[in-house]
Amino acid sequence: MEKLIDELRNIVGMENLLTQREDMITYSYDAAVLDPVVPAAAVMPENSQELGQIVSLCSRTRTPLTVRGAGTNLSGGTIPSGESGIVVLTGKMNRILEINEADMYAVVQPGVVTAALAAEVEKRGLFYPPDPGSQAVSTIGGNVAENAGGLRGLKYGVTKDYVMGISFFDAMGEHVKSGSRTVKCATGYNLSGLMVGSEGTLGVMDEIILKLIPLPRARKSMVAVYGSIEKASETVAAIIANKIVPATLEILDNFTIRAVEAYSRAGLPVDAGALLLIEVDGHPGQVEDEGTEVEALCRKLGAESIKVATDDSERDKIWAARRSALSALAKLKPTLVLEDATVPRSKIPDMVRELQKIAAKYKIDIGTFGHAGDGNLHPTILTDKRNKEEWHRVESAIEEIFDTALALGGTLSGEHGTGLAKAPFLEKETGMSSIIFSRRLRKAMDPHGILNPGKITGDV
Amino acid sequence: MEKLIDELRNIVGMENLLTQREDMITYSYDAAVLDPVVPAAAVMPENSQELGQIVSLCSRTRTPLTVRGAGTNLSGGTIPSGESGIVVLTGKMNRILEINEADMYAVVQPGVVTAALAAEVEKRGLFYPPDPGSQAVSTIGGNVAENAGGLRGLKYGVTKDYVMGISFFDAMGEHVKSGSRTVKCATGYNLSGLMVGSEGTLGVMDEIILKLIPLPRARKSMVAVYGSIEKASETVAAIIANKIVPATLEILDNFTIRAVEAYSRAGLPVDAGALLLIEVDGHPGQVEDEGTEVEALCRKLGAESIKVATDDSERDKIWAARRSALSALAKLKPTLVLEDATVPRSKIPDMVRELQKIAAKYKIDIGTFGHAGDGNLHPTILTDKRNKEEWHRVESAIEEIFDTALALGGTLSGEHGTGLAKAPFLEKETGMSSIIFSRRLRKAMDPHGILNPGKITGDV
Hints:
The structure is a homodimer.
Chain A: H1 2-12, E1 17-18, H2 21-26, E2 41-43, H3 48-61, E3 65-68, E4 86-89, E5 96-100, E6 105-108, H4 114-122, E7 126-127, H5 140-146, H6 153-156, E8 163-169, E9 175-179, H7 191-195, E10 204-211, E11 213-214, E12 218-226, H8 229-241, E13 248-253, H9 254-264, E14 274-282, H10 284-300, E15 305-308, H11 312-323, H12 325-330, E16 335-338, H13 348-361, E17 365-371, E18 376-383, H14 388-407, H15 426-430, H16 432-445
Parallel strand pairs in A: 2-4, 3-4
Antiparallel strand pairs in A: 1-2, 5-6, 6-10, 7-11, 8-9, 8-10, 12-14, 12-15, 13-14, 13-17, 16-18, 17-18
Helix pairs in contact in A: 1-3, 8-13, 13-14
């Protein structure tokens, strides 16, 4: 181990190597509710060359390696694999290498913060739509590794839909290029597509080419207040059924509304059964028409009041309230389990009903909010993991949430990945053949199991 | 071999097994300019169960298997692998299994014809945008296997962007599921993404889930006539630089215009240096604005005249002319080589200039047309392969076209795949590490090399 540390120091220098106990504890966990695992060291490469040398060293010495961006992931994808493993931090590989306005793409290093890229391209009239909840700190590398989603998924898709190319070091330390700076590319396998969502298990990325689109010329945000969450969720299904695809279409239940209000004093109606937070965007004429149609649908389906943001500051207040939901809920109890089960959007009313039943059955608090427009709810369980009896009920509830989502034609994870947290449940969704196929693939690409072991498929 | 034929007959029945010499010749080639290879038999499974049995049989007997939709692919992806190999025809697995309007997706078998699906969803106010040139006969299975593009790539993306899930039989005959009916899915590896563009080398698909979007409410088509192709191609770059992304933005050079006019008598201006065929779509207000802006840009950059289609029949005439380009050029000489080299869109003027130089240098006829708006030109070489001396010049010209595209930051293939035709050139673009990685992946997923051998990576 000492020899490994020496070699790492030789590659990145003293100032970019961390081995102190307190640092190791910092990198022993992420946003998932899982037991921490302390690594041997953490390194901060400053460029592709150093990164490649680190991967080669790990390959040669069979050292398990977990890459970490901001550690915001919710499925344990960045939990190290044990005391013999190291963590590679991408924080110093945070340069935007190119923003090409004429061809509408960006080339970035993995450590670029999502919101920083979004702001940079927006200055040029361009748009990078994926906006995961953690965008203020999350990194593009982490977003790609987890195939992060966000509020705009229903209209604009997820990270996967913006990845044009990725270059990465494979488990042997070889530098592999895939994809292109062109809109169309059908050369070789779609290795970039395979890398998206692979949670650091197939390679270590050093450059990512991202598609950009023109910034929408107009947008309109509104909040619709409902007496019951059933009516709100029926409105969600009705909007899509009317072939309107808003940029965002979010729901907050009463539990979440009260938590947010207590946390942020945003002026939310604490007696409301549910809120819909909606934004339409695009050409000004489209925004006008869609805004009017959405408002009419909300009223028709029972909204008690609708408030349309009249300027940017009112708009920002709406979305700040939504974005504070997770932090607000986290204040209430020691342990927060943020689930991610997703259903076809027309099944949102059914899913909401089932979640209420599950909360009652297991006598637990579930705050439900999330991306109703793309079927991606975040039922959030508030508990205290130290209370073993309650935690047992929580575990049963989680499994029942998974089963319910699958029974409704949905998926275990819309945007939070599989990681360690959902690996044991994967078979429920995909069947065993898919897992065997995936393990075979992984074993071939990483025969010594050094790349983020245990994630997605469990141990290979 | 007789035993194999007997077993195939047991699976699909006499009426779905072809072994006659004349049938075998039919399935010995595709739209690529490559030597035909005659297979041992062709089978037409009628359902997933039969398809799975065929793959299992091939797995057990180590029989090479090439899946064929309409055989329109241009890189040799459907050329059988020799007399010991069989061809699996998807023509009888052509059912649309589900069109879900509320959740905007379709589930189809691989043999569904692209245009048939597009028409079916359009009746419901929905839109399946990918429109490869061969859409009237090409199949969704073939489109997915080749990651087919089309005219709408610049605004709407390619086949890859619409695949939500794929189920397939792997090389062992196991049935693997990936993806979901939900807009977001981050469960397990993105195996659907890997399957797209894998040209039948990683599995045999039996069901594909496709994303649909609302049909644009309005559209406007126009033809801009230019004295020179340089001015036309500069207009392409200027439109995108002005952050307008038309639904289609096609170019035809003088050579192609004359060929199309001779073939179809569409009334094209045969003296024009080049034509741009443009369609904008979306909200009526957006169409109005973008139409006006595009028209102004065309004039500013030297268009001699612009004709806007005033009704659907005029619109259809424009696109019928464009779609006849390949057939029209094919009439001129015995051999047609349709290239697919693609560059970042801002490099279209450079690429056009280089293509003219290459045509002059090698004294060959190159008709250039294609999807200028996404950088995906189709320089089309007209020749006679039996003329060995000329064919040699053609081969040199093709290699120079590839080198030019790569030097301009482009790719060997925008939408026609790698197949057999481009496999020898792959290293030029991706480097050897990427090929080694891909071969390793392939070997693991298909250890006996039965799935469409030789394509993409060459022999493993």
